[in-house]
Amino acid sequence: MMQLYFGPGACSFVPHAVLQAAGIEFEPRMVKLHKGEQNEDAFKAINPRSQVPVLVDDGEVITQILAIVGYLDKKLAGANVLPTDAVARAHAIEALSWMNNTVHPTFTHFFMPFKFTKDETAQAEIKKFAAVQYKQHMLDLQALVVRAKAQGHEWLTGAHFGPVDAYALTLMRWGSMAGVNPTDVPQLWAQIEKTAMHAPVAATIERERLKLNMFNPT
Ligand SMILES: N[C@@H](CCC(=O)N[C@@H](CS)C(=O)NCC(=O)O)C(=O)O
Fold first, then answer.
1. Dihedrals φ, ψ of 5, to 5°?
2. Which of 1, 7, 14, 136 is the most exposed place for a label (fewest CB within 10 A)?
3. 37 pocket-lining for ligand 1 (C-beta < 6 Å)
4. Ordered strands of the 60-63 beta sheet
5. Average pLDDT over residues 101-116
6. Does the beta carbon of 15 sit less than 6 angstroms from any atom of ligand 1?
7. Domains contained in the chain, CATH given
8. Protein residue whose Cα sits closest to atom 1 of ligand 1
């Protein structure tokens, strides 16, 4: 049975929700990131980079969301992890890459500015700057939602729920922590609320015990 190492609320939500949606049996293994379990020897023996997600299948350790999604797509043929149409598939990977290499690191700058400088004044500046960038990323993400809807798609990459939808939920949830008011991105937020109600996603949210809207209007 596959094992997925995840941190509640972390980007590992993406493969977590995808596995749940595929309807296969897997073993979710929680890593308490806030307690630093990712830096303990037991976890480092699995992923020396101290990050989730990690998928273990038959002793094979796979890290990085894009690699895990690609693996699950190949392994769970018929589960519609990624679209099968060549163009739709390319756009799904395009969106995942942007989320992973641009939006995600912007949130890291907001959430953990201490990873980039020891200078506390500079940290405050990094945080402020990242929050402004993050808002723009949410507007760009909303544009993806609007485009998908205009094409008559129920989900971001077509007729099936997939990793792009799960990542969108995670990134918007983080956005609400970074000061993005859901009411400022209404089409995006409506799609995220719908995604959260999709049964396998709702089950994943429950297992991770997540609150969707973390916006604090102060
Ligand atoms: N590019 C990596 C990003 C993984 C990543 O940033 N994981 C974060 C959680 S969202 C993590 O494990 N952080 C632990 C830490 O920073 O100590 C991927 O796609 O898997």
1. -90, 125
2. 1
3. no
4. 26-30, 2-6, 54-57, 60-63
5. 97
6. no
7. 2-75 (3.40.30.10), 86-198 (1.20.1050.10)
8. 64
